[in-house]
Design goal:
411 residues, alpha/beta, Rossmann fold, 2 domains, 7-stranded parallel β-sheet, binds uridine-5'-diphosphate
Length: 411
């Protein structure tokens, strides 16, 4: 089946929203935009760009998506940067900064930047701007990570790079740092019609669980996330074990490997050590995963966890809420934007809190059903791709009239 076109979203969001996008796009005209990130598959940024890019193009915007090249030494450094920007204590040798800048220069040389707007996603390619001091176009840094507690040494290095941009985009006020450049705020979004989120029939869902040997004889509690320390999969196992003492259930941990994330094997080994030989704990590692199967795991689970310790947004939360699943999320980063505690999900601050939330949802199926339904409404209002198209169109228009301070594009 071919990818959905804009017209197909009318049935999901209503024709007026599509009309609004078309009108906005007519004002944007033939302005061009280039998106740059560090991986074509794996993780939320690639997930979003795969859909945003063709839909913006359908709206008449000239859009290009480029992925920077790197090898293991570079991605080891950028993953360490990612972790440190989210708060991991670490001292970087001067060599790490030099390597980071060298790879950015190499990538910059291999690319063209003649579009009206350049959007650089996350820290990996951020330093390419150094060679564009006298530019005529506009460059915006889109930060998808949780910058609430950045490592000081690294932020001293990164902040002046970020401040070379014309503006920066952050998801939440909780982690937008003080910067000398204007800031835009807007949320990420999911695509309700892509393979990850489209409706599936029950038989297919069942078939996926059978394929991977996960019995559905009792409630299934699932976390779907890269095996990354900030997603706290070890904490998930601990919380599950606490809940499992009181309610019969299974835990399913699903993760894939992103090309720019070398850490998964180590973290999965830690998860397995914590799980021991518990017969109700199942772990799967994909490279890469299949979107319809992830969709099936989300739909076929009784509770979805996203017990992150730091989190830029967590598309997984919106994906689960869109499927009306009750979600238990860590009270960090972009998760509280999606989960209004007790109304569109439950927030957990600790392992114990997550264990208790699992118990409480499994013991109160009507409450679990209701918050799942409320969650779906919240996603429909705020976190669907049509809203994000609008935000990008507004960004293209807003850049014509540069202004200081914070500009909210979440409306
Ligand atoms: N994902 C996936 N397979 C996996 C694990 C995650 O397809 O095994 C997807 C998940 O459904 C979501 C994205 O990867 O669409 C992760 O985005 P999120 O914002 O939750 O986290 P990130 O990995 O960007 O930190």
């Amino acid at each position: 089946m071919s990818a959905p076109s804009l017209f197909d979203y009318r049935d999901v969001v209503g024709p007026d929203i599509i009309e609004e996008l078309t009108i906005l796009a007519s004002h944007v005209g033939d302005r061009s935009i280039k998106m740059v990130n560090s991986t074509a598959v794996g993780g939320g940024v690639a997930e979003m760009l795969h859909r945003i890019v063709p839909l913006l193009s359908e709206l008449g915007v000239q859009v290009e998506w480029a992925v920077i090249e790197g090898d293991e030494p570079f991605f080891e450094i950028t993953k360490a940067f990612h972790n440190a920007l989210q708060g991991k204590e670490q001292v970087f040798p001067e060599k790490a900064f030099k390597t980071y800048l060298r790879y950015n220069d190499m990538n910059e040389e291999a690319m063209k930047f003649d579009q009206d707007l350049i959007v650089i996603h996350d820290p990996q390619p951020a330093a390419m701007i150094r060679r564009h001091e006298n530019r005529r176009n506009r460059w915006v840094w889109r930060c998808h990570i949780d910058l609430s507690h950045p490592n000081e040494q690294l932020w001293r290095f990164m902040a002046p790079i970020v401040e070379r941009y014309d503006a920066a985009i952050f998801t939440s006020a909780l982690f937008s740092p003080r910067l000398k450049i204007p800031q835009y705020r807007f949320y990420p979004a999911i695509d309700p019609l892509d393979d990850k989120n489209k409706d599936l029939d029950k038989a297919y869902v069942e078939q996926v669980f059978v394929k991977y040997g996960i019995p559905r004889d009792k409630p299934i509690v699932t976390q779907i996330s890269r095996y990354d320390p900030w997603k706290d999969p070890v904490g998930v196992v601990k919380a599950f074990k606490m809940a499992r003492k009181y309610v019969d259930c299974r835990l399913l941990l699903v993760g894939d490997k992103a090309a720019d994330d070398p850490e998964s094997d180590t973290i999965l080994a830690q998860v397995k050590a914590e799980a021991g030989d518990h017969p109700d704990i199942h772990t799967l590692l994909f490279s890469p995963s299949i979107a319809t199967e992830i969709n099936a795991f989300q739909r076929g689970s009784d509770i979805i966890l996203q017990k992150s310790l730091r989190e830029g947004f967590a598309l997984t939360v919106s994906e689960a809420l869109w499927k009306s699943r009750p979600v238990v999320g860590g009270a960090v980063g972009g998760i509280p934007v999606q989960i209004i505690d007790g109304y569109t999900g439950l927030l957990a601050h600790t392992v114990e809190g997550a264990g208790l939330a699992i118990r409480s949802l499994l013991n109160q199926p009507e409450f679990a059903r209701q918050i799942g339904e409320n969650g779906r409404c919240r996603v429909k209002d705020e976190f669907l791709i049509t809203k994000n198209l609008k935000r990008y169109l507004l960004l293209l228009l807003a850049l014509d009239k540069p202004q200081g301070g914070t500009i909210f594009l979440n409306g």
